[in-house]
Amino acid sequence: MWSLTFAPLVPMPLLIGLAVLAAVAAGMALVLAGRSAILRALALTVLAIALADPSLVFEDREPVKDVVAVVVDRSASNRLADRSQQTQAAQAEVERQLRGIAGVEARTIEVTDQQGAGDGTRLFEALASGLADVPSERVAGAIVLSDGLAHDAPATAEALGLRAPLHVLTTGREREIDRRIVLVDSPRFGIVGKEQNVRLRVVEKGGPGRAAITVRRDGEIIARRAAIAGETVQVPVRIDRGGPNVIEIEAAPLDNELTLANNRAVITIDGVRDKLRVLLVSGEPHPGERTWRNLLKADANVDLVHFTILRPPEKQDGTPINELSLIAFPTRELFQVKIKDFDLIIFDRYANQSILPLVYFDNIVRYVRDGGALLIAAGPEYSGAQSLARTPLGQILPAQPDGSVFDEAYRARVSEPGKRHPVTRDLPGSEVEPPRWGEWLRLVGSRARSGSTVMTGPGDRPLLLLAREQKGRVALFLSDHAWLWARGFRDGGPHLDLLRRLGHWLMKEPDLEEEALRASARGRNIEIERQTLGDNPAPAIITAPDGSTRTVPFEPGRPGLFVARTAASEFGLHKITTENLTAFASIGPENPRELMEVVSDPGRLQALSEATGGSSRRIGQENGSGVTIPRIVPVRSGRQFAGADWIGLRISDSGIVRGVSISPLFVGLIGLAILFGALVAGWIGESGRRFKREA
Q1: Backbone dihedral angles phi then psi of residue 562, each to the nearest 5 degrees
Q2: CA 660/CA 61 separation, integer angstroms
Q3: Backbone angles phi, psi at 248, to 5 degrees
Q4: Does residue 335 lie within any of the structural domains?
Q5: How far apart are CA 424 and CA 429, in angstroms?
């Protein structure tokens, strides 16, 4: 390819000035001297051209193909209904047409929602990455095969950075039906025992305008509501326990709905306990009383109410009441009026001495069965006639006394069930036999009748029993010598670990549940942990966001713990169930953007594509499974690259320069001869004009 270039021998402003002066002089000479001055003007022109140093340049160019990006959306929303089939058919037809256009190279860029790490479909990030190694002048255009639901679309064509037309071929149907839940306001924290309000809105296309809503907390239905599409609904949710409370809100499905994944929204509200209220009633002063008090007072989250019975009824000596400095035991206020305000009631070496009427023990039984917690730390009184087992409390206690008391040195041991229970599993010192802790000196004999015996004394007799009573919990400690560990008797023992775990289990700490299912996300994997006192738990059933299910077996871990690990196939909330337990694991965000809005829409990218000279159109046929693809034609000039039945590509005729040869026109003898010839011609012309005038 030939071209003419200039390399001026003098600065360009000087060359321009000389050219202007030469033109003015030639013009004046033409006026004054007539046509003979044309030769002088020619000589000046040749001089100006010589100073401009013109050259002929020949470029050895190798043509290169322009690149067309074919962006194929493989995200979850573009796999709904028959969109996958439409995408495949459209891709095959587009690539077939591009193969028929000379000088064009098709580059396929596939996009999945996994590439956005749960942040939706990142079409334009993938487009920019796929064309990063292509000069902008070689990009002929981009053809996007998608449902139109891109979550990274730039606001303007300038921000897109594409100097070629963008064409969007939209899959899906015109009359699609879908219903989804949009969270308007959702709290992240809540006080245990209090309600939090969740505000949401039902959005639907093609539905009746009303929807039934079901609210679940940790898999259990807690409310049902009716909602009008487009209106904000407020749903009160009670925070039932500390730690994560998984709230699932689900709208009833529509017939022929695109997907049910967006009919559900999930919120995790962390329950925070305001204050744990504990009532400690000591039946008499004894060395272990201070151990319980110190333990509970050391916890800033515990609000402790402690009473010690100093004057039982048999110690009446006739002293007038107004001369006593003791505070009266407020039995009615504690065990009738405010009993439900307590999270835990502890009777420490308490004997039934008619201080509490039997009706108050009935109140305690109801309190436990309604969800309260009771701990009996028993001493010798538990085996006698004044035992709490002989009150109405006996019907909820896990062991009945047999009348014996063993006053002998022994090492408490963790039982086989105790090795599985979170309260006593891995107690420091229990990993060896005999346990590496000090001895106790007393045990109250009993017969276990319910619950789990997690620690034993001499002769494998029950020492610590844990039981559930309807909604509540009961613990029975059959020794009053835990304080020996606190005092360091014979090297002491892990009294803080044991008593704290015991108290937190009674108050329903989630991490100490003996029957629990937990799940967590580790990258793209789901890790499942099953806590149980039994053997061979049932496999876990995992329900993916798209509704598909699969079964994963557990493998043994530590005593009482079984584990499973599996890879997740997609982003979103996965529901894990086994027996009557439910857990959730979120891969990516809990409510992924990809499935929040799934109705296909050519209008979403229409303004952007038209700003580049391209177009956005639907290709799905309403009455069939096929697609209608416009003709693809090359366009070498113009700003519009789309019509009613065609889309265009900007052809640049680009090439790679393999070599360059330069031939100067006014250098050496050739330039000198031309300049000399122009001067001689001017001189001859002037001499001839003078000769004629003299003749």
Answers
A1: -125, 140
A2: 9
A3: -115, 125
A4: yes
A5: 11
376-400 burial, b at 16+ Cβ within 10 Å, e below that, comes to bbbbebbbeebbbbebbbeebbbbe
Cβ-proximal residues to 343 (8 Å cutoff; 6+ apart), any chain: 276, 277, 278, 372, 373, 507
Give yes or no for residue 170 having a pLDDT over 80: yes
Based on the fold, state whether residues 259 and 331 are members of the same structural domain: no
- Is the pLDDT higher at 270 or at 591? 270
Query: Which amino acid, 102?
Result: A
Domain count, the chain: 5
- pLDDT-based confidence at residue 678 (cuts at 50, 70, 90): low
| Residue 592 in domain | no
pTM of full prediction above 0.70: no
Same domain, 261 and 193: yes
Phi, psi of 202 (to 5 degrees): -95, 125
- Placement of tokens 């077939």 in the chain: 96
Residue 637 lies in a domain: yes
- pLDDT over 80 at 474, yes or no: yes
Q: How many whole angstroms separate alpha carbon 630 and alpha carbon 482?
A: 84
Give the structural domain span for 676. Answer: 2-62+657-691
Q: Are residues 642 and 661 in the same domain?
A: no
| Residue-wise pLDDT tens digits, 275-295 | 889 999 999 888 888 898 888
User: Considering the chain, what is the average pLDDT of its residues?
Assistant: 86
Task: For the chain, state the CA radius of gyration.
Answer: 45
What do you get for the CA distance between the two ends of the chain, in Å? 55
Distance from C-alpha of 56 to C-alpha of 6, rounded to nearest angstrom: 9
Judge if 117 and 164 occupy the same domain. yes
- Going by the DSSP 8-state scheme, the letter that residue 549 receives in this structure is E
Count CB neighbours of 414 within 10 A: 25
